[in-house]
Amino acid sequence: MAPIRKETLGELEQLLMLAVARLGGEAYGAAIRKVLEETAGRAATIATIYVTLVRLENKGYVESRRESPTPTRGGKAKRCFALTPKGVAALRQARSVLERMWRGVERLSDFKAR
User: How many domains does the chain have?
Assistant: First the structure.
């Protein structure tokens, strides 16, 4: 019997989507990177963050918009991200799967490696 395959979110995808949710309307590369480092203890390059966010946008989990260019950014515009309803549902599904998998193994201190 072939296994049932559902598209699942990878760890970095989940962390980035959660950072986007935390930041609300101010979810752009540098701010996302800061939340990722400070909250999750995870380092990632800006390029990795944007590549992953574009992949999530292509899947319909996030959407982006360009802000107006500002002089403080050398005339560059921020690209801000927000979760879509599909993205929220995917995050909830990922959390649900992890919670189900954790049930019954809360006592990892009793685990003995072979």
Answer: 1
Q: How many CB atoms lie within 10 A of CB 21?
A: 16
Q: Angle at the Cα of 38 (from 67 to 12), degrees rounded to 5?
A: 75
Torsion over CA: 39, 43, 45, 48 (sign): negative
Q: What's the chain's Rg over C-alpha atoms?
A: 17
Given a contact cutoff of 8 angstroms between Cβ atoms, the answer to whether 50 and 41 are in contact is no
How deeply is 87 buried, as exposed, middle or buried, from its count of CB atoms within 10 A (0-12, 13-18, 19+)?
A: buried
pLDDT digits (tens, 9 = 90+) for 5-54: 567 899 999 999 999 999 998 899 999 999 999 999 999 999 999 999 99
* CATH code of 88's domain: 1.10.10.10
Residue with tokens 């050398």: 74
Q: What percent of the chain has pLDDT over 90?
A: 65
Q: Is residue 76 part of a domain?
A: yes
111 lies in a domain? Answer: no
